[in-house]
Hints:
This protein has an eight-stranded parallel sheet with strand order 1-2-3-4-5-6-7-8. β5, α7 (about 155-170) and β6 form a beta-alpha-beta unit. It has a domain at about 95-290: TIM Barrel (Alpha-Beta Barrel). Helices cover about 40% and strands about 15% of the residues. It is of the alpha/beta class. It starts with 5 loop residues before the first helix and ends in a 13-residue tail after the last helix. The protein has eleven helices and eight strands. α7 (about 155-170) runs parallel beside α8.
Amino acid sequence: MPCLTADAQSAPIPIIDTHIHLFDTARPQGVPWPKKDNAVLYQPALPARYRKLAAPLGIVGAIEVEASPWLEDNQWVLDVMEKDTIMVGTVGDLEPGKPEFRKHLERFHRNPMFLGIRHGNLWGRDISAELSKPEFVSDLKALADAGLSLDTANQNPGLISAALRTKDLVPNLRIVIDHLPQMQPPADAAARTAYIGDLRELAKRPHVYVKISEVLRRVDGRVPEDLSFYKPRLDELFDIFGEDRVLFGSDWPNSDNWAPYPKVLSVVREYFMGKGRAAAEKYFWKNSVAAYRWVRRADNQPKRG
């Protein structure tokens, strides 16, 4: 195996941000999220604003994750992304189990930047209840056969258990578990044991990925900014899933509720650089290729070879 030169070892690691949201609060029809009473978030979040913030930090590409249950917002996002090469894909919003799912899947899948869909505890949906419906599982199989992924949203122990059931029902489906560090593990000992058991079982399944995102959290009215506060939970997840299953995601602009983007990035950069360059490269971009198969659109984006 060839050794890296000193220059290669010290070169900046390109970053693919696998979780940002795009929306335009100035549209005539408005947006379903964020709400107008959120003064931090309620302003246009578009690629040009993101690029200005992220590019100086070493981010070379980003994947948008749905922030709307409106069908045509899938197309709106694709159209907006087309204008800026920092955007390499989108995780859209379609509802498996609905009669029109296959038609909509075929429509949006024609665009190579449509990488998958998100489902979970959002927009009044519950994947746990849906898994008992044959048409829902059949549509997830169609999603997997199309080479697309499934993100799960707003974690709780029930959704972790549902992700495991989903993986066993649709073994070839790539599953991405969003924002797991933000979830508070169960306080009850038996419930925590079951939760950790489900995570360990998920880690045994191929093509299951975890976003080490939404790491910062508010505690007693403040947001700690030192890695030492978050390290025990990060260690737990890293020990379970390992360096080949973890992804970077900023959750911008939702992350502004906790801290500015540079601070969000600095905490996880410190943690993963402490694991060595090879592990950091996997976290910051290499694993995103396996999880999402995103589209390379600019010369500064790493080759997916």
